[in-house]
Inverse folding.
């Protein structure tokens, strides 16, 4: 190998020279005692630890080893600057070498970790598992091992331990360390959100029994506020519920929102109702990164710069919206969206549970009142029948007894009305099925109906069916009782509708209609009959004497048929009051029947 004068001079000054290849290629002026011959580039690294080494000689035929040395050098640089922590440990877990990232996590950028225990440089973290002795496992079994460490600063590291496979270093371990703090905190936050969701409407039976509807709503609102503020760290919060019939977004909860914004009327419509209206109409979450450049945004607070809005969804139906705002631009990321969407589903389920509780309470209250009313309805009717019968005998004989009997009648009627009123107060309007309070049935409320039938089941059914729509129902067994009920009323037009069986124990429904005609200007009559049963063509005669063409019910009849007939008679009575027919004398046919 050719060498320059300068090269020869430098070699002559060397104390020890590492040789890769044939030592005969080294200049003759280098003493053999100063030459260390090695097999390859890997061995050079070990010999370089000797401070007496002044250089490395590579023979011409070993020049490819130069690229291997360069690779070793580059590998060291890569290990030093890897984003993961890397360390080499001896069998006593002392650090032989550590890269920069591990030193950074250990907080010791200047102090050398060499010779210190691995756990010590990480401030003795807690071992979370799954392997609680990962280093000893790797040394004992020769297999790789994994575990998670938690530091006092609530940082989490995943360590992977592998024994060196080189025979000369079999008692050394290579350790890689990854910072998984964000991942662990995400998992903990998700678990906390799910736990919070379960607790939103988690009420014990004793609590449900003791709390009114408004109190349960207030508790749910406070739980929502607590978890959104303390768990998710949202400071400006607005929740609105969608009124399905009108599309109005009604405020439920406002935290940090300006009062004018909280009172603002919004609808589930994509235009002119801000981000909240858009989300309610589309059912899709919306992230506003910068309110200045977002045409949909309507601020809830003056300093809002970004917002996040998600729908409250239950079975693909939008129940409302949750909106949060921040004074910082681009304050909400993917994790915030994920967390809020998860919690929004829990809120929707909690609201649905609360609605079911309200409906259940309403149903229980309604059933209780219905049961009480059903138990007293017919006995009260018996009191009414007996009272009017006795009063009929005392009229003109004892005014004091008559007055007392009238008070009995009023009090008996008040019993049923009081039960109905209590049931209405105990049953929240929003929990009652829509049909029961729809405008279609509003005409039946507070209308007085007298039902005359010898069949007790028919009288019970009349109470149950008609009173659910707000009618005031009284019953009589036979025609004479019905006449006394009408005559004993302060107003002859006391009853808005009178429903009678066509065949009564004392006479026919048609004859009752004629007798009632002597007491009332207009008889709002309905006749009930079985199919094909019409003794003496009573229905035909009744129609000839003013019975409405639709004033007939054929047993058995459905509830909707009963309601339709009653509404028809009520409408007909209104028309007759507005346009009264000319008075006429009773027909001979009527006189004949009356005397029968």
């Amino acid at each position: 190998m050719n060498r320059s004068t300068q090269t020869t001079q430098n070699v002559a000054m060397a104390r020890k020279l590492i040789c890769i290849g044939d030592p005969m290629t080294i200049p003759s002026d280098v003493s053999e005692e100063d030459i260390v011959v090695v097999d390859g580039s890997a061995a050079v690294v070990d010999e370089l630890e000797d401070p007496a080494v002044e250089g490395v000689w590579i023979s011409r035929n070993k020049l490819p080893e130069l690229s291997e040395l360069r690779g070793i050098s580059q590998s060291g640089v890569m290990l030093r600057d890897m984003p993961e922590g890397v360390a080499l440990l001896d069998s006593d877990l002392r650090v032989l070498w550590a890269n920069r990232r591990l030193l950074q996590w250990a907080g010791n950028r200047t102090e050398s970790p060499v010779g210190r225990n691995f756990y010590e440089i990480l401030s003795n973290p807690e071992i979370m598992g799954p392997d609680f002795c990962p280093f000893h496992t790797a040394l004992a079994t020769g297999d790789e091992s994994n575990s998670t460490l938690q530091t006092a600063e609530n940082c989490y590291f995943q360590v992977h331990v592998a024994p060196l496979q080189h025979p000369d270093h079999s008692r050394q371990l290579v350790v890689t360390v990854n910072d998984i703090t964000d991942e662990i905190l995400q998992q903990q936050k998700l678990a906390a959100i799910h736990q919070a969701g379960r607790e939103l409407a988690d009420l014990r039976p004793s609590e449900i029994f003791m709390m009114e509807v408004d109190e349960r709503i207030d508790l749910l609102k406070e739980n929502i506020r607590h978890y959104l503020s303390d768990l998710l760290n949202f400071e400006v919060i607005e929740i609105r519920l969608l009124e399905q019939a009108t599309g109005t977004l009604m405020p439920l909860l406002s935290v940090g929102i300006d009062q004018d914004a909280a009172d603002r009327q919004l609808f589930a419509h994509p235009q002119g109702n801000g981000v909240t209206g858009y989300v309610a109409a589309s059912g899709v979450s919306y992230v506003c990164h910068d309110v200045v450049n977002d045409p949909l945004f309507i601020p809830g607070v003056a300093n809002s710069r970004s917002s996040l809005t998600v729908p409250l969804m239950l079975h693909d139906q939008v129940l409302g919206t949750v909106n949060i705002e921040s004074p910082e631009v681009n304050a909400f990321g993917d994790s915030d969206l994920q967390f809020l969407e998860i919690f929004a589903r829990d809120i929707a389920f909690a609201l649905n549970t609360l609605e079911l509780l309200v409906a259940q309470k309403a149903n229980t209250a309604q059933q209780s009142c219905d049961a009480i009313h059903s138990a007293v309805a017919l006995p009260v009717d018996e009191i009414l029948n007996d009272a009017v019968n006795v009063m009929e005998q005392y009229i003109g004989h004892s005014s004091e007894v008559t007055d007392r009997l009238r008070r009995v009648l009023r009090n008996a009627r008040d019993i049923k009305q009081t039960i109905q009123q209590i049931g209405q107060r105990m049953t929240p309007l929003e929990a009652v099925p829509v049909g029961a309070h729809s405008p279609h049935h509003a005409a039946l409320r507070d209308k007085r109906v007298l039902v005359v039938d010898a069949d007790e089941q028919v009288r019970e059914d009349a109470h149950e069916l008609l009173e659910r729509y707000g009618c005031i129902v009284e019953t009589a067994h036979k025609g004479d009782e019905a006449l006394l009920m009408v005559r004993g009323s302060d107003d002859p037009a006391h009853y808005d509708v009178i429903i009678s069986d066509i065949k009564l124990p004392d006479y026919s429904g048609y004859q009752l209609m004629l007798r009632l005609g002597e007491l009332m200007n207009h008889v709002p009559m309905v006749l009930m009959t079985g199919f094909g049963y019409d003794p003496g063509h009573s229905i035909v005669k009744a129609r000839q004497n003013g019975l409405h063409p639709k004033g007939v019910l054929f047993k058995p009849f459905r509830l909707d048929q009963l309601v339709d007939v009653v509404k028809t008679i009520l409408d007909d009575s209104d028309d007759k009051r507005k346009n009264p027919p000319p008075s006429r004398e009773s027909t001979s046919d009527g006189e004949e029947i009356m005397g029968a």
Q: What stands out?
A: The two ends are 152 Å apart (CA to CA). The chain has four domains: 16-78, 82-183, 186-361, 439-578. The CA atoms of residues 52 and 492 lie 131 Å apart.
